[in-house]
């Protein structure tokens, strides 16, 4: 199966202490070699912004660490961006809205703790 990680799940995954916040099912999914796990350019952008404004400290090589865990990077397509126009405004965070569009367009399940995601027609695993 294909899974897309929400930004906070990525941050928790990269931090040994943060991993304790993850639910066991989410950990099993991410660790399983049978699953395809993705992070989006959207999350990379969000993390970069948080680092630049001082809201987050993270090793700048975090993408290399994710690749070591066989996590793939998902580019953003025009179709996903255009889908934002018609996506209901249950959630106002533009990063999260684009992740929802990507999950829907790519037939992925989102791993997230964000309860707002449940208002959309997207598969969710609570992270």
* Strand proportion: 15-25%
Distance between the termini: 16 Å
On the 0-100 scale, what is the average pLDDT? 94
Level of helix content? 40-55%
Beta strand count = 5
| CATH topology title | Rossmann fold
Q: How do the strands of the widest beta sheet line up side by side?
A: 3-2-1-4-5
Domain unit count? 1
What is the CA-atom radius of gyration, in angstroms?
14 Å
Largest sheet: 5 strands, parallel
Q: By CATH's scheme, which homologous superfamily applies?
A: 5'-nuclease
Q: What is the CATH class? A: Alpha Beta
Class of secondary structure makeup: alpha/beta
N-to-C series of helices and strands? EHHEHHEHHEE
Q: Which spans of ≥5 residues are poorly predicted at pLDDT below 50?
A: none
The total of helices stands at 6
Shape: globular
CATH architecture: 3-Layer(aba) Sandwich
Can you describe this structure?
The radius of gyration is 14 Å and the shape is globular. The protein has helices spanning 7-14, 24-31, 41-52, 62-68, 78-83, 94-105; strands spanning 2-5, 36-40, 71-74, 109-112, 123-126. It has one domain (2-126): 5'-nuclease (Rossmann fold, 3-Layer(aba) Sandwich), CATH 3.40.50. The model has no long low-confidence stretch (mean pLDDT 94). Strands 3-2-1-4-5 form a five-stranded parallel sheet, sandwiched between helices. The chain starts with a strand and ends with a strand. The chain has 127 residues and is an alpha/beta fold. The chain contains six helices and five strands; from the N terminus they run E-H-H-E-H-H-E-H-H-E-E.
